[in-house]
Amino acid sequence: MRSQPAGPPPERGLFCNRTLNLRAIKAVGYDMDYTLIHYRVEAWERRAYEHIRDRLVAQGWPVGDLQFDPALAIRGLIIDTEKGNLLKANRFGFVKKALHGTRTLDFITQRDEYSHVVIDLHERRWVFLNTLFSLSEACLYAQLVDRLDAGQLPGPMGYADLYEHVRKNLDATHMQGRLKAEIIADPERYVIDDPETPLALLDQRNAGKKLLLITNSEWAYTEPMMHFAFDKHLPAGMTWRQLFDVVIVSARKPEFFTTRSALFEVVETNGEALLRPHSGPFKEGKPYFGGSAVELERHLGISGDEVLYVGDHMFGDVHVSKSALRWRTALILRELEDEVRAIASFRPTEARLAERMVLKERLEWDSCQLRLELQRRRGDYGPRTDSPTEQELVAKLGTLREELEALDAELGPMARAATELSNPIWGLLTRAGNDKSHLARQVERYADIYTSRVSNFLFATPFVYLRSPRGSLPHDPSLPGGTPVFPATDSGGGMADAE
């Protein structure tokens, strides 16, 4: 009997929100940047940051001394362009942590500014950091808020004006192509080599699935980067272009999924790429420019839940393709590997924290019961007994208060450590306080599956049936959730002792 192969390490699993039978998928579409090709985040974002900063210096801004801080921002944060703040919100849209510029807001200031605010990303005030490409932009914006507050930037200018200026210079940096030219010239410096990704796609192709590359990057960048990342890991004589049934560059996502646009064939002549209007069926082995998902579906003869699209952009790849086309979706979260490892390393402390929280909840329950009994006695209503006396009740309350204070002193450092996992400022990507983060809520809603890298499909095979866990609410006995409205019971069904 064959032994069962070892499964993937936990951080490289495929995590399923909505049951997905990969055998029923007829086409798998892929984004390129941070999906098929993973960059060294700090190296890429540092150069992107430096390009924007240098443009500002050329415009006369006194910012040449600023340096990229890789810990200042993470994916899933929200920029409040009205107040110049970086925010982390929970799944309900309530702000749980805030920085004004690079300075953490104290509890009272944060409460005053956001206690009555629910974040709605449809409002222009909020900018959600959908992808790792957003980190340089957010870092520089936060640092410039500090300079603006100090009166060191040209004015008059508000926080929203400042954000628009940063965004405009970021777009100009990408339009000029200088950064991408650097990447093409020295890909080893910026790209993480992953020989398993081409193998995963070969498995899918040979299992009968059509493979699609749909990227916003232009052909002049896509071709050399895919050549570098894929060709050396493919069978002899095969190139990355033979791996894909359809290649679409400059796709303009998310509009690619929602609108119709002209489709052009990319014609390579004497080392240059020219565009030729195209109509009719797609030609095998030809790259295309623009077009639309509707046109692609018509060409493939498939639509909706027969297509799985894999990308790293929460809105442009996952949200829109799911909402507009009902495609199945997979979100790539490279940071997930560090997150899962951090959670695993914290597990002993987490267990101790949970154990002490059970005691804290029981002490709070007893305290509430004593306070209610005192209230009823003093108000002369409700059931009552003569024992214990009011003085004894007050004394018991005092003892419980002391026990709770001692317990809080023990819990405090553990709770703080839990909020600093992965990132000392923002903590875990998927958590906000004791709740799911705003990003986690979107992952849950729009990503059928999520994983850290495309090569994780190797562990699952193209024939896997991915089943989502049973959903749970706080009353569900299968998983712990929230504080019960009654004290814990012992195995015999009676009230458990507080000790």
Automatic annotation (TrEMBL):
Protein's organism: Myxococcus fulvus
Protein name from the UniProt record: HAD superfamily (Subfamily IG) hydrolase, 5'-nucleotidase
Gene Ontology MF terms in the entry: 5'-nucleotidase activity; metal ion binding
Family: Belongs to the 5'(3')-deoxyribonucleotidase family.
Source organism phylogeny: Bacteria, Pseudomonadati, Myxococcota, Myxococcia, Myxococcales
Region (Disordered): 475-499
Tree of life domain: Bacteria
Keywords, alphabetical: Hydrolase, Magnesium, Metal-binding
Entries under NCBIfam families matching the protein: HAD-IG-Ncltidse
Membrane-crossing segments per the record: none
InterPro entries assigned to the protein according to its UniProt record, in alphabetical order: HAD-like_sf, HAD-SF_hydro_IG_5-nucl, HAD_sf, Pur_nucleotidase
Pfam families xref list: 5_nucleotid (PF05761)
